[in-house]
Amino acid sequence: MLLIRSLIFDFFLYGLMLVMGILCAPLALWSVGGAYWSIHAYCRTVLWLLRVICGLRTEIRGEVPTDEVIVCSKHQSFLDIIMLAHALPRVRFVMKKELRWAPILGLYALRIGSTPVHRGQKSKAMNDMVNHVSQKSSAPGQLVIYPQGTRVAPDARVPYKVGAGVLYGRMNKPCVPAATNVGVFWGRHSIYRRPGTAVVEFLKPMPPGMKIGEFMVEMENTVEENSDRLMREAGFDPGPRVPAVLRQRQAGSDV
């Protein structure tokens, strides 16, 4: 029964994306505000369907940022993208470059000013990312970056990439860490949408001006500790974790 409910939900998830994406395209092309209205309407409908069909409720905790900030979030599945896009009033994402050509998704992502990044070209990708974000800085909003660079399984320990720290230093804006447990209910490669309560929690903002190394350690520890807490709250034990500063010392890093 869980499989059937999950497949029905996925049918509506992608079917609605296609239908609303096409019908709302003139509105999105007319204005950026129209693109945001369309995105919020889609996400709101999807989260309602997720609760009704699969019994999976979603909850946003903490103070939702509305000013111009960087949001450094844990990324476990498509669900945390939907929840962030629904909660944040002027969201834009640092996303992999291939998504520019994704039907519907690419149009709306670029319309709201998201930043495409080629993950295979490290130095060039970082320069392109910083330059693109700098060009978009005149449009206030919440820039979401996933510091691990990819979706991560609930029990995986994937290193954090320095790109988030570079953006933080260049933009000179506060950073809001965000933790989540969504992967417990909606895995990155799973077709199952399990019942429960998926949470995204906005944590205490980190002020601008920290050194990049100090920022990276504090941000990683904050996101990981609170994501572990949320996963345990959901009944999943992610296992032990090496604090960022100790892991970096073991690796001989000076960051």
Provide the domain count: 1
Contiguous uncertain segments of 5+ residues: none
So how many helices? Answer: 9
Strand order of the largest sheet: 1-7-6-2-5-3-4
Order of H and E elements: HHHEEHEHEHEHEEHH
Q: Bin the helical content.
A: 40-55%
Give average pLDDT, whole number.
89
The count of β-strands is 7
Helix vs. strand class: alpha/beta
What is the CA-atom radius of gyration, in angstroms? 18 Å
- Largest sheet, if any? 7 strands, mixed
What gross morphology would you assign? globular
How far apart the termini lie comes to 48 Å
Percent in strands: 5-15%
Secondary-structure blueprint:
Layout: H1 2-23, H2 25-30, H3 32-54, E1 56-61, E2 69-73, H4 78-87, E3 91-96, H5 105-111, E4 115-117, H6 122-136, E5 142-145, H7 163-171, E6 175-180, E7 196-202, H8 212-233, H9 244-250
Parallel strand pairs: 1-7, 2-5, 2-6, 3-4, 3-5
Antiparallel strand pairs: 6-7
Helix pairs in contact: 1-3, 3-4, 6-7, 7-8
Can you give a write-up of this model?
The chain is of the alpha/beta class and 255 residues long. It has one domain (57-250). The protein is built from nine helices and seven strands; from the N terminus they run αααββαβαβαβαββαα. A seven-stranded mixed beta sheet has the order 1-7-6-2-5-3-4, with helices on both faces. Helix 1 runs antiparallel to helix 3 (32-54), helix 6 packs parallel to helix 7 (163-171) and helix 7 (163-171) packs across helix 8 (212-233). The relative contact order is 0.16.
